[in-house]
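Researcher: First entry.
Model:
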Amino acid sequence: MYAALITGKETVELVEFPDPTPPDAGVVVDIAFCGICGTDIHAYQSGTPYRPSICGHEWSGTVSATGKAVRSLTEGDRVVVAASPACGRCSACEAGLADRCEAAFLSAIGSDPLAPPHGGFAPRIAVAESRVVKTDSGLTDEQAAQVEPATVAFHAVRQSYLRLGDTAVIQGAGPIGLGTMQWVRAAGAGRVIVIEPNAERRALALALGATDVVEPGDEASTLIKESTHGLGADIVYECVGRAWAIQTAVDLARRGGSICLIGVPDTDATISPAVWLVKEIRMTAALAYFHEEFDMAMRMMADGRVLVEPLHTSTASLAGLGDAIADLAGGATQQAKVLVNPNWA
């Protein structure tokens, strides 16, 4: 069996692995689709060491084998990748901080004891039973492959200081930004402004319910000031994942406003602390998700409150993964979410 791995700067290789077998407390999943994440793109661009277990971490599939200790899943169950629930035994759990469980966090970043030697860019994968949840029956396999990034955005909005009726700004209309925009609307924002340089993505944001879309720069600043009587946004969600965008988010927020960091920059950021202090900015940061949030997000996806089908713009094979990532990394792509079907020849 071959799995695709990002092994260096602008390098994707097909690496041969033995067919996986389930550990006692694990399952083998036949992958249906796996999405290309911004984290994959950053690794491809930078060439920094990239953990193989998360090279392809947005997947859906069907359980094809179970370990002897598995009780909650059977062969034929449709599942999506998730984070483990709180263990109840680590230092964080024993301190009453189950939402900061060390074992759950390690599973979310692919460092748990049963982490596989490759990610979801493969026909099959063996993972811990706790790392998957059953797919909502109302979702297709293509939709299910977008549950993981949708839950990233869901978690971020739940962590943030958003209040009913707020003017919210979303920086970046990639898959995470478009998901965040929809969750923000579902959570009761009064006005949602999306800042995005790509015209196709701006059009998609409008189609998915943004109040306004605008290119970054002076035009965005003017629009936000005019729509808030000169105050600035109540909350800004940073979904670009570039260091410069963090200070920009603060610049667009009102005094007493807040920002939420979701995009992950791969370099340090330069900020203006005096601006943060004068504005008394509140900040939340969101990485990954909690186990229970997957079912919550899937229910809202299945009933149509959040749409992921329009984000899926193309599908690639394993052999075409390198070209697909190169296109997404080039900065001029027309794609939103690209899924990989590892079963295509």
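Researcher: Second entry.
Model:
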Amino acid sequence: MAGSFLTEIDDDSTVEDVRTLLSSSEISLVVAVASFEKKCASLLEGIETLESAYTNNEIGGGCCGGPSNKPAVLVIRTDESDELEEVAIELGLSAIPSYAVFKSGNAVKTSKEDEEVTVDAVRAALEAAASASCAPSTEGCCPAPPAAGDAKSKDDILRLVSDSYAATVNKTQSCCVSVDSSLMGYTQADLLKAGADANLGLGCGNPLSFANLREGETVVDLGSGAGIDCFIAAEKVGAAGRVIGVDMTPDMVHRARDNASKKGTKNVQFRLGEIEYLPLPDDSVDCVISNCVINLSPDKAQVFRDIYRVLRQGGRIAISDVVTQPEKVIPDELKTAEALAC
């Protein structure tokens, strides 16, 4: 049985299901195996040992020569059903064992039929894919932010944040801290519900894991982005419930609405607005969620005042975010609005 690092594909999964999973991760590895080939068991055991290497930052290929993020690893046991064998073949994996490395859903390396598939070969392919996913600008990978002081007023900061996330959703630039959502506490089932287009990897946790949403509730997501948390929440509150995403970036709201239309989701809506002044009536919400957004606000006290305003009596909040620790010193270059805008 595969461990937590390895996800076995169910025999009722289609190739479209697998491609959706692959699209939701920056780097993915798919391995085709079968019980009749003895070397497969040792191969999987070896691949599973890579988890500790990633955890200990021993595998390179990351931006600026740093460590790589842990990939999603999918295992297809081709001898368990004809359907799984067909999935493997459609992904270009006809030999046993064989593997393919994907970057944002696109195959970048597939083992050859006569290739000796080893853990070292797999590791090298993963490192190469991670290295290729780092695209430095002319100023270098994740360049230092502009000099502090360029953004002084609250409006300047909000404009800077909005422009940064508009560039991210339009793929004209990418946040250096974009991460694989499966590492943030989301299950593969969650990511399938949300859809690949809603998952931009911009969170820093999973607020839904402790929100305890119930059917029929009204939920508001502060800084909803392309909609990942909203679509997952919509499943939890059901047809009698409602989910409202609020985001100040028009391009994000447009993307989220487009995703909702494609998915045919009826109990989700997305509104353009600032989280400091929510476009919602008083006492109208059962739960407020937010994922790595409140830290971007120049007036966090106002954010919480407005959360209190829209919550019904007995309402609750579920927030995943970054915080500072009093004993920790933040470098000056990370204190600028530009550095924190992404």
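Model: Note on the second entry: Confidence is low (pLDDT under 50) at residues 135-151.
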